[in-house]
Amino acid sequence: MEWRWNHDREALEHEVQEDRVRSEQEQRRAALAQRPKRMLAEDTFWSLIDLLDWSNTGDDESVLEPLVSALSGLGKPSIRSFAERLAFCLYSLDTKGHAQHIGVDSFINEAAHFSSDGFLYARCAAVANGRAFYTSVLIDPRRMPKDIEFEALLSAAPTAWERITGEYLDHQAGCSYETFSNISGWSSEAP
Fold it and tell me: Which pLDDT tens digit goes with each residue over 135-146?
């Protein structure tokens, strides 16, 4: 690289610029590809989330049961659209700003240890706390739950699906809820 810088700088700079443009185009395409499919109506989604039975804290299956039971009664299209709305909510919280406020395991920088799964489960806790809390966290990442996770929420739709069909839910959401999927939320310009 040093030789090229000293002897062929113009071509090197051109290649670097082309790589930067190509990378930005790929990021834009990836961000555009993240579009939710048919989602359950917001009011219905949040009324289902409100069914979580926190009197059974410590027994995630029991906390989840009222939600799973109600979701099972709505049928297959509603289960898929619930999964879609959940994925979109989790995707929306998948930002560097939110990751920086989850407690002791918060994102510091690329060099420091950070659990992408732990961050996903913290985002699940934000959703599981209901619409008002989720909305406040979406607006202000500093309100993210600290050192709290609720991974079990991810099993609500698959459990309801299996309950009524006897089969595994094979659903690819339009938005990935996996950590780092929200490209714009993790861009260098993001807070």
Answer: 999 999 999 999
Query: Do 60 and 97 share a domain, yes or no?
Result: yes
Q: pTM of the entire structure? A: 0.81
Q: Is 156 found in the same domain as 119?
A: yes
Q: Which residue has the tokens 């700079």?
A: 13
Asked if residue 27 and residue 53 are part of one domain, the reply reads no
Question: Is 146 strand, coil or helix?
Answer: coil
Burial annotation 121-147 (CB, 10 A radius, 16+ → b, else e):
bbbbbbbbbebeebeebeeebebbbee
Residue 191 lies in a domain: no
Tokens read off for 31: 């961000």
Range of the domain at 77: 39-186
Q: Which residue has the higher pLDDT, 1 or 116?
A: 116
Number of Cβ within 10 Å of residue 95's Cβ equals 20
163 inside domain: yes
Q: What is the pLDDT of residues 11-21, one digit of tens each?
A: 888 888 888 77
Residue 60: inside a domain: yes
Give 77-127 as a 3 state SS string. Answer: HHHHHHHHHHHHHHHHCCCHHHHCCCCCCCCCCCCCCCCHHHHHHHHHHHH
